[in-house]
Design goal:
The protein is of the alpha+beta class and 131 residues long. The longest helix has 19 residues. The protein contains five helices and three strands, in the order H-E-H-H-H-H-E-E. The chain starts with a helix and ends with a strand. The chain has a single domain, classed as Ribosomal protein L22/L17 (Ribosomal Protein L22, Chain A, Alpha-Beta Complex). Strand 2 and strand 3 form a beta hairpin. The mean pLDDT is 93.
Amino acid sequence: MGARKRLRAEAIKENNKSIAFARLNDSPIAPRKMRLVADLVRGVEVNKALNLLQHNSKNASTSLGKLLRSAIANWELKNEGANIEEANLIVKSIEVGGGAMLKRIQAAPQGRAHRIRKRSNHVTITIDGTK
């Protein structure tokens, strides 16, 4: 590896020390419903985001709350000995993508059938600690 490449790799590695992420695959909630809750906490400080998710009545907020706690735990593992309050952790990004779709059939009148699509999603949450 060349000197410039190595220096660039070390700089990227140093920048990524303050970033942690967590991923939730195949959550059985529709992506549209999950995005409504994800939009509430995007760009918000972590403790405030946890509070918002805890007091939200939507079903998706429980899944996102667990995922956010997981991302915080991943950040703590990366930065041993660092304090969460001093680090000023922020929810940097939340990406909600469509997952696999279960296709079912529901009986309809006169011998017909309607297609039911049960959607799932994948969520990736990234938190950033600016010291």
